[in-house]
Amino acid sequence: MKTVLLLVVTLQLALTAPRKIPYVPDVVFPPVPEDARLSSHQMQLLLDTNPDPEVQPGLFQGDMALTSEMYDFWRVGLRWDVMPERKWTNNTVPYVISPLYDTSDYVTIYNAILTINMLTCVKFVPWDGKAKDFLLIWPVKYPQGCWSYVGRFGGPQIVSLQPPDTKGPNCLGGEGRTIHELLHALGIFHEQSRADRDQYIDVKFENIIPEYRNNFNKQSLENTTYNFQYDYDSIMHYGQYFFSKARDQPTIIPKKQNVRLGQRKALSKTDCLKINDLYGCLNKSVYHNRKYRILCDSLGY
Ligand SMILES: [Zn+2]
């Protein structure tokens, strides 16, 4: 099975390679809202205490590139009524996977794409060389780590996935972190930003590096809606120690017992439903509603 997949991937690489992929510089400058900009001292403090590749200095909530305008209007999923241009047209997301990845990393990214394609009516398709808006899944050198823009940004749009190195798997130890970043690219934010989150978790502000306390802000109900129960299992939920001052001081404590936060293994049932809801897959017809609910229900988390 793996050999067949490798063959398919190699063939696809060969077929897509000659197209004119845009040049991607080593250093890129994703947009960051005013109050997420940091000094180099603040950045170093974060790097010293947080080894997680999603907790990158200088990006909004660690791993999102977004403008001040988007920051003003966001919710757990972007508001299409406020920013219709951020939604991918026809539920189709053209992508290019960088030829700089080795084959096993390519397969990891490709598996993440296949998973979303199978479970939702959103379709990631190889870029045809013509579509104006598409994802460039790329191991950019700076800012390193796993990060993404939120929603469709217009033009070639980077999803940064740092490959494994001597220190560990970074973003590509499994398909989970790729899925997390692809969900940002579809317009989905972190679960613990929900306005009602205080019913489900305690945020320990005293344990958060002060400059990063904003990352734990809630969103007002005026510009947010939640169609699903709070989801501790979400692949979009922070881990218990994200942005902590020290590795033994949790920043989030769940109110419910025996739950674990911050899984990056797979989509949860609710994540799956959330994508299908955001992209209208559940209202297409009774058949589609049933199909995607059954598919999402089959997931482990
Ligand atoms: Zn994230």
From TrEMBL:
Residues that coordinate or bind Zn(2+): H180, H184, H190
Protein's UniProt keywords contain Oxidoreductase: no
EC primary class: hydrolase
Active site: residue positions: E181
Cofactor note: Binds 1 zinc ion per subunit.
Protein keywords: Hydrolase, Metal-binding, Metalloprotease, Protease, Signal, Zinc
Keyword Zinc assigned: yes
GO molecular function list: metalloendopeptidase activity; zinc ion binding
EC numbers: 3.4.24.-
Cofactor(s) needed by this chain: Zn(2+)
Residues making up the signal peptide according to the UniProt record: 1-16
GO biological process: proteolysis
Pfam families: Astacin
All residue ranges annotated as the Peptidase M12A domain in the record: 76-282
PANTHER family associated with the record: DISCOIDIN, CUB, EGF, LAMININ , AND ZINC METALLOPROTEASE DOMAIN CONTAINING, METALLOENDOPEPTIDASE
Protein name, UniProt field: Metalloendopeptidase
Species name: Coptotermes formosanus
